[in-house]
Design brief:
About 60% of the residues lie in helices and about 10% in strands. It is of the alpha+beta class. The protein folds into two domains: about 450 residues, Multidrug efflux transporter AcrB transmembrane fold, CATH 1.20.1640; about 280 residues, no CATH class. The strands form three sheets. Strands 2-3-4-1-5 form a five-stranded antiparallel sheet, with helices on both faces. A hairpin with a 5-residue loop joins strand 8 and strand 9. Helix 16 runs antiparallel to helix 25. The longest helix has about 35 residues. The radius of gyration is 31 Å and the shape is elongated. This is Transporter.
Length: about 800
C-alpha cells in the first residue's frame, strides 16, 4: 500500500495538471447538473416498516382524496382583548377564504363531497393524513365531563366558517386546512404563498396576531454564517500548525472541492431521490472536517520530511502520501464502514444520509491522495520557507515538541492514576445518558420566542394540549369485510369514553367500506408518556374493543410516527454497534497487527460515546447551560441522533487512533521499544492530531448555532464527542494504556500473523525499497527555495 501511494504521490506531484483538471471537470459537471436540475429537499421524516407508517400508507391507498399534507394557523389577540369582535371575525373569515382559493389548498366542500364525511385537517399532522375534526364542530361528539377547554365553530353572518374553531375560554382561533399534495411535494413558493395570505391578517389594523404551525415553516438548508466562523477558526489552527499561509490554504481548498462535489451531487440527486434537508448538511459537516484533517496530515508529514530530513519537496511529497496517506486511507475506510453500516438498519432515511456522507468521506480520501500532491507540485519548494529549513538543520524535532514530550512522559509515569481518573470522569459524564429521551421536535420544545412555540401554547390554552398531536385511527374488520356502521359507532363511542381521549370522530370510509378512519384527540400532548401509552393500548389486539367488536385497530399520525421511530431506533442501536465494532475491529487488526490495540481503541470509544450522550442529554433534555447553544427549553433528542452520532464518532475516533498509534507502531518497527516507542510515536504525531481535533471541533461547533434543532443537536454531539474522545481518550488514556502493555501491545498469534495481509501502513517496506534504489532519492535542494 505505501509503495503504491508513494508512486501515486510522486506522479501527481510531477504531472499536476492532469489531476487538477480532472477534479475541476468533475466539479464543473456537478455544478452544471445542479443549475439544470435544481434542488428539492424535504423536512419530512419517515421510518419504513413501522406500524404507524404502514397504517399511513394504507390510508393513502384507500383514501387518496385525503392524502395531502396538513397545516394549521392560530389567530390570537393581545391579553385582555376579545377575539370575537365583528371586525376580527370577519378578517379571519376573509383570510380563510383566501387560503382556500389558493390552487394548492383543498376546499373543505370538495373534501366533504369526496369522503362523504365532514372534516378538516388536524394541526401539525404528517402528509397523507385525512382530516381531523373541527370543520363541523357542532356535530363533533365530546366526552361528558371532560376537563378540557371548550370550543365551537367560527360563525360569521350566521354561517360557520369551515376549518375554524374558536375557544370559548381563551381568545384563540384555530384554522386547520389541507394541501392538495403531500408535504414532500410542496415547494417553498407554495408554502410562502400561504404564509403571505395569512400574514396579511396582521396588517389589516384589526390587532390580530397570526402564528403559523411548524408544518408551515419554509423548507430550507439550515446553513448560516456560524459555519463560516468555524472555518475561520480552522484556518487559524492550520496556520499555527503548519507555520505557512500557503501550506495552510491547501487543506481548506481541497476540503471545499470535496464538499462541493459531494454535497453538490447530493443536491442533484435530490430531484430523483427523496432527501431530507439534513442529509446534505450532514455531508457538508463531515466532509469539511475530514477533508481538512486528511489534507493536514499529508501536508504536515511532507513539511516534517523537508525540515527534519532535508528532503526535496517532490520526494517528501511522495513519502508523505506513502506513509501519512496510508493512514488517511485506512482512517477514511473506517469512517466509511461506520457510515455504510447504517444501511443494515433498513431505514431509508438513514440509508440516504449514510451513503451521501460516506461518499463525501471517500471524496476527501481520494482528493487527499491525488489532488493534494498535484497542488503541492504547483507550489514546489515554496511549501517550506528558507527560514524554516535553516531552523530544521539546527533543531531536533523532539525539541520542537517539548509540550507534547512533557505531557506524554507525565502520562506514562502516572499511567495508573491517569487510567482510573479518565474512566471515572467519563463514567460521571455518562450518567445523564441513562435518562436519555428520544422523540421528534414539536412546538412544545421550540424556543419561547418562536412562532411554533407560541402557536403550540395558544392551541393548548384554547383547545387542550392534545390538539397539538391528534392521532389517526383506522378501524378494519378482522374478516376483511366492510365495517358495519353500527360497529363503527360503537367503537367511536367507546373511544370517547376513555379518560385519556377528549374526542373521537369518523372522518372517512374507503370506497369498499373495509376501512374506516377516525380522528382521535388525546388529553395529553405529543411528548407525554401518557400519549405513548394510549397508542400502545389502542393497537393491542387483546384490548376489549378489538375483541368485543372483532376489529383491527391501527394508529398513525405525527405523534404515533414519532413514538414508533423512537422505539425502532432504540431497538437497532445494539445491532448497529455490533456491526460497526466487528467490522472496524477487523480493519484495526489488519492495520496494527495487534490484538490489544483494536480492543483498547474500541473500549475507549465506548467510554467516550456514553459520555457524549450524557452531556448532550444534560444540555438539550435537562436544559443545563442551554443558553450556550441557543435553547431555552429542554426536550427529547431527535430519535435517530444516537445512531447517526455513534456511526460518525466511531469512524472519526478511529481516525485519531490510526494516526496516533500508527506513529507509535512506526517507532516500534524502527527500533524503539517499551515506553520509548510510546513517547517517540506520541511526539511525532500528537501535534498534528491535536490540531486536527481542534479543527474538527471548530467545524462541528459552527453548526450548533443554526436555527434547525436537529442540526444543532448533531453539531453539538459531534463537537462534544470529538473533544472528549481526542483529548481525554486518544491523547491521554491511549498512551497510558500503551505504556501499561509495553511491547506486549504489539503481540499477535503467529498463525493469525501469517494469514493477515501486511499492508505496511508504517512504510517499512517503502523505506527498504528506497534504500535499495538510492538513485531515485533526490538530494536536498536549499538553493531551490522559491522555485518549483
Amino acid at each position: 500500500m505505501s509503495t503504491f501511494l508513494y508512486r501515486l504521490g510522486r506522479g501527481a506531484y510531477g504531472r499536476p495538471w492532469p489531476f487538477i483538471l480532472g477534479w475541476v471537470l468533475v466539479l464543473a459537471a456537478v455544478v452544471s447538473a445542479l443549475v439544470v436540475n435544481g434542488v428539492k429537499v424535504t423536512s419530512e421524516m419517515k421510518i419504513d416498516n413501522t406500524e404507524a407508517q404502514q397504517v399511513l400508507d394504507r390510508v393513502i391507498d384507500e383514501l387518496p382524496e385525503a392524502s395531502g399534507g396538513q397545516a394549521s394557523v392560530v389567530f390570537t389577540v393581545p391579553d385582555g382583548q376579545r377575539l370575537d369582535t365583528p371586525e376580527r371575525m370577519a378578517a379571519i373569515a376573509e383570510t380563510v377564504q383566501e387560503v382556500y382559493a389558493l390552487e394548492q389548498v383543498v376546499n373543505p366542500a370538495d373534501l366533504v363531497n369526496a369522503l362523504g364525511q365532514p372534516g378538516a385537517p388536524g394541526p401539525d399532522q404528517p402528509a397523507a393524513e385525512p382530516a381531523a375534526p373541527g370543520a363541523d364542530a357542532q356535530q363533533r361528539p365530546t366526552r361528558p365531563g371532560a376537563e378540557q377547554p371548550q370550543y365551537q365553530p367560527l360563525v360569521v353572518d350566521g354561517t360557520p366558517v369551515p376549518g375554524v374553531l374558536v375557544s370559548t375560554q381563551a381568545p384563540v382561533a384555530l384554522f386547520q386546512f389541507q394541501f392538495t399534495v403531500p408535504s414532500t411535494s410542496l415547494t417553498d413558493e407554495e408554502v410562502s404563498a400561504v404564509l403571505e395570505v395569512v400574514k396579511d391578517a396582521e396588517e389589516d389594523g384589526t390587532g390580530l396576531r397570526v402564528l403559523p404551525s411548524e408544518s408551515l415553516k419554509a423548507i430550507e438548508i439550515p446553513v448560516g454564517p456560524a459555519e463560516v466562523v468555524g472555518l475561520a477558526v480552522a484556518a487559524v489552527v492550520l496556520v499555527l500548525t503548519l507555520g505557512s499561509l500557503v501550506a495552510a490554504g491547501l487543506p481548506l481548498v481541497t476540503a471545499l472541492v470535496g464538499v462541493g462535489i459531494g454535497v453538490g451531487t447530493a443536491f442533484v440527486l435530490s430531484t430523483s431521490v427523496e432527501m431530507n434537508s439534513a442529509t446534505p448538511v450532514l455531508a457538508l459537516m463531515i466532509g469539511l472536517a475530514v477533508g481538512i484533517d486528511y489534507a493536514l496530515f499529508v501536508v504536515n508529514r511532507q513539511r516534517r520530511l523537508i525540515i527534519d530530513r532535508g528532503l526535496a519537496a517532490r520526494e517528501a511529497a511522495g513519502r508523505a502520501v506513502g506513509t501519512a496517506g496510508s493512514a488517511v486511507f485506512f482512517a477514511g475506510l473506517t469512517v466509511i464502514v461506520a457510515l455504510v453500516a447504517l444501511t443494515v438498519i433498513g431505514i431509508s432515511l438513514l440509508t440516504t444520509m449514510a451513503l451521501v456522507a460516506a461518499s463525501t468521506v471517500l471524496l476527501a480520501v481520494l482528493i487527499a491522495l491525488t489532488l493534494l500532491p498535484a497542488l503541492l507540485g504547483l507550489i514546489g519548494e515554496r511549501i517550506v520557507s528558507a527560514k524554516a529549513r535553516q531552523k530544521g538543520l539546527t533543531k531536533r524535532e523532539e525539541e520542537t515538541h517539548s509540550v507534547a514530550d512533557h505531557w506524554v512522559k507525565a502520562v506514562v509515569r502516572f499511567r495508573w492514576p491517569v487510567i482510573v481518573g479518565i474512566v471515572a470522569v467519563l463514567g460521571l459524564g455518562a450518567i445523564p445518558a441513562a435518562s436519555m429521551d428520544l422523540g421528534l421536535p414539536t412546538g412544545a420544545t421550540a424556543n419561547t420566542d418562536t412562532a411554533a412555540r407560541q402557536s403550540y401554547e395558544a392551541v393548548t390554552r384554547g383547545f387542550g394540549e392534545g390538539f397539538n398531536g391528534p392521532l389517526l385511527v383506522t378501524v378494519e374488520s378482522a374478516e376483511g369485510t366492510a365495517v358495519d356502521p353500527q360497529t363503527l359507532g360503537a367503537v367511536t363511542q367507546q373511544l370517547q369514553q376513555r379518560d385519556d381521549i377528549v374526542a373521537a370522530m369518523p372522518v372517512g370510509t374507503s370506497k369498499d367500506g373495509a376501512m374506516a378512519v377516525l380522528s382521535v384527540i388525546p388529553t395529553s400532548g405529543p411528548d407525554d408518556d401518557a400519549t405513548a401509552d394510549l397508542v400502545q393500548a389502542l393497537r393491542a389486539p387483546t384490548s376489549s374493543m378489538a375483541q368485543e367488536y372483532d376489529v383491527v385497530v391501527g394508529v398513525t399520525g405525527f405523534t404515533a410516527i414519532g413514538i414508533d421511530m423512537s422505539d425502532r431506533l432504540a431497538e437497532v442501536v445494539p445491532v448497529y454497534l455490533a456491526v460497526i465494532v466487528g467490522l472496524s475491529l477487523l480493519i484495526l487488526l489488519v492495520v496494527f497487527r495487534s490484538i490489544v490495540v483494536p480492543i483498547q481503541a474500541t473500549v475507549g470509544f465506548l467510554l467516550s460515546i456514553l459520555a457524549t450522550f450524557g452531556v448532550t442529554t444534560a444540555v438539550f433534555s435537562w436544559g443545563w447551560l442551554g443558553w450556550l447553544v441557543g435553547i431555552d427549553t429542554g426536550g427529547p433528542l431527535m430519535s435517530f441522533i444516537p445512531v447517526i452520532v455513534t456511526g460518525i464518532l466511531y469512524g472519526l475516533a478511529m481516525d485519531y487512533q490510526v494516526f496516533l498509534v500508527s506513529s507509535m507502531r512506526e517507532s516500534y518497527v524502527h527500533g524503539y521499544h517499551g515506553k520509548a516507542s510510546v513517547v517517540h510515536g506520541f511526539d511525532q504525531a500528537s501535534r498534528v492530531v491535536v490540531a486536527a481535533a481542534v479543527i474538527m471541533v471548530s467545524v462541528f461547533a459552527g453548526f450548533i448555532f443554526t436555527h434547525d434543532v436537529m442540526i444543532k443537536q448533531i453539531g453539538f454531539a459531534l463537537a462534544t464527542g470529538i473533544l472528549i474522545d481526542a483529548f481525554l481518550v486518544r491523547i491521554t488514556l491511549t498512551p497510558a494504556l500503551m505504556a501499561l502493555f509495553g511491547d506486549k501491545a504489539w503481540w499477535m498469534p503467529r498463525w493469525l500473523d501469517r494469514i493477515l495481509p501486511d499492508l505496511d501502513v508504517e512504510g517499512d517496506r517503502l523505506l527498504q525499497m528506497l534504500a535499495r534504489r538510492q538513485d531515485s532519492e533526490e538530494p536536498p535542494r536549499p538553493d531551490a527555495v522559491g522555485t518549483r
